[in-house]
Amino acid sequence: MAYQAKSALEVQLDVLGALMLRDIRTRFGGTMWGYCIAVGWPCAHVLVITGFYAVRHMPTPIGDSIVLFAVSGLSPYIIMNYTARKMMEGPLQNKQLIYFPQVKFFDVVMSRALVEICTSSLSIFLVFFIAACCGAQVLPHDAFAFCEAMLLALCFALSLGFLNVFISQIFPPWQIGVIVPMLIMYFTSGVVFVTESMPAVIYEYVQWNPLMHIVKVCRSSFYPGYGADASILYVLMVCGTLLMAGLLGIRFIVPRFYN
Questions:
Q1: pTM recorded for the entire structure
Q2: Rg of the chain over CA atoms, in angstroms?
Q3: How far apart are CA 69 and CA 92, in angstroms?
Q4: 3-state DSSP assignment of residue 226
Q5: Which residues have a Cβ under 8 Å from the Cβ of 150 and sit 6 or more positions away?
Q6: How far apart are CA 204 and CA 198, in angstroms?
Q7: How far is it, in rounded angstroms, from Cα 234 to Cα 155?
Q8: Is residue 197 in a domain?
Q9: Is the residue at 189 inside a domain?
Q10: pLDDT digits (tens, 9 = 90+) for 119-159
Q11: pLDDT tens digits for range 61-80
Q12: What is d(CA 42, CA 76) in angstroms, rounded to the nearest whole number?
């Protein structure tokens, strides 16, 4: 039987698969337990929020379950935070691989993005499973709105991730500096509290945070009538702008640093 050369697409998929396996083995110690810790780590966010409300004896901002309130707000944040930051770290940690002719810069970025998407998805599943074990009603009333929120969070994470990759290549300290805007988005997104409780002057500026709109869409799937003012169009416009800036920078500016 004559040997058939692989197509360019097959070679590309093989490279992505190899990079993903290498990424998982090197980052998580090559053991199942290392990867389990990465998947279970976001659950600490739920414990912190529920513990904060329990210790201070604060009423749940929406509904009667603080666990459901935390889970509905954290799900989009988990996807956005981990994917956007870890995509940036991929080329910095695997810079030597880019000098192989079969491996392109974009391959390293996409392999890290795919690993983080899978890890975040498993983390969200685990968070909802633990919430269900705690007695929370985790089945959304509007499944379409929940799926819509997860897709918006994924789009925002990828667009922000590509922009972070571009900035970190021309300005390496950005891998630390990115923590500042991430924290700002976190504390103004309504994950810990509802943004409607903020003063009107501050709320006017908070609405520029795309994550806030995504969190509202996610919570609207569990709390009917909530989040009617969330703007999906605004989130898509921000995602498109960030994605274009990141991809153009990766295509035309980043290659100069590898010549």
A1: 0.89
A2: 20
A3: 36
A4: coil
A5: 75, 76, 79, 124, 218
A6: 9
A7: 13
A8: yes
A9: yes
A10: 888 888 888 888 888 777 888 999 999 999 999 999 999 99
A11: 888 888 888 888 888 998 89
A12: 12
